[in-house]
Amino acid sequence: MAEEFEYTDGPNDVGDMFQRPGKPSDYMPQPYANEEQARAGNLGAYPPDLSLMIKARHGGADYVFSLLTGYQDPPAGVEIREGLNFNPYFPGGAIGMARVLYDGLVEYEDGTPATTSQMAKDVTIFLSWAAEPEMDERKKMGMKALTLLGILTGLSIYLKRHKWAGLKTRKILYNPPTPKKH
User: Fold this and answer.
1) Alpha-carbon separation of residue 104 from 29, 36, 73, 85, 98 (angstroms)
2) What is the DSSP letter of 4?
3) CB distance 87 to 93 below 8 Å
4) pLDDT tens per residue across all 182 residues of the chain
5) What is the 3-state secondary structure (H, E, C) of 110-168?
6) How far, CA to CA in Å, does 125 sit from each of 1, 22, 47, 105, 155?
7) What is the pTM of this model?
8) Crossing angle of helices 60-69/116-131, nearest 10°?
9) Buried b (16+ CB within 10 A) or exposed e, 112-121
10) I need a labelling partner for 92 at 20 to 30 A (CA). Which of 30, 111, 140, 162 fits?
11) Alpha carbons 125 and 142: distance in angstroms, whole number
12) Hey, how many other C-beta atoms are within 10 angstroms of the C-beta on 67?
């Protein structure tokens, strides 16, 4: 997705900034130029940073998945204002974001059925990664640390037994001095 945009980079050899195609490590450009434009496009509400939404909400990924798949008609007796949608998983039940996922909205290359649930799962997994892109590296480092600590523990146990084996098996007897005869 980042490859679709041009990014200012540089400076080059002569000190000028230049435009280049995006790389996977580049941040996505903001959809709005400023906060006022963002509020105008979202019924007066400033849209949140979705890259942290999984960590920001209680329930994390489960909450986002439920929110994306939970749109339904309001139950009898529940009034929803114009421009809002009913979602029982959103606090208060009325959310300004319209339903964005429908069956068959995208086409997967591997033939996976494009159900609302599958697309919500994909979005949730991506947002989980966006919230903590270093998590995989942290897990690998943790496994390396546990392996090293295990080896060092085993080595220290072996050395302790080897070093102290002679002292533990030694018989120590107390021979009191015998009285001298005069």
Assistant:
1) 27, 34, 21, 21, 17
2) G
3) yes
4) 566 788 888 888 888 888 888 887 777 777 888 999 989 888 788 888 888 888 988 888 999 999 999 999 999 999 999 889 999 999 999 998 889 999 999 999 999 999 999 999 999 999 998 888 899 999 999 999 999 999 999 999 999 998 888 877 777 788 888 888 87
5) CCCCCCHHHHHHHHHHHHHHHHCCCHHHHHHHHHHHHHHHHHHHHHHHHHHHHHHHHHH
6) 16, 22, 20, 18, 41
7) 0.65
8) 150
9) eebebeebbe
10) 30
11) 22
12) 20
At position 40, the amino acid (one-letter code) is A
β-bridge partners, 6: 21
pLDDT given at position 103: 94
- Quote the tokens at residue 171: 């018989």
Structure tokens of 7? Answer: 């990014």
Which of 114, 84, 109, 112 minimizes the C-alpha distance to 99? 84
Which residues make Cβ contacts (< 8 Å) with residue 23, sequence separation at least 6? 2, 3
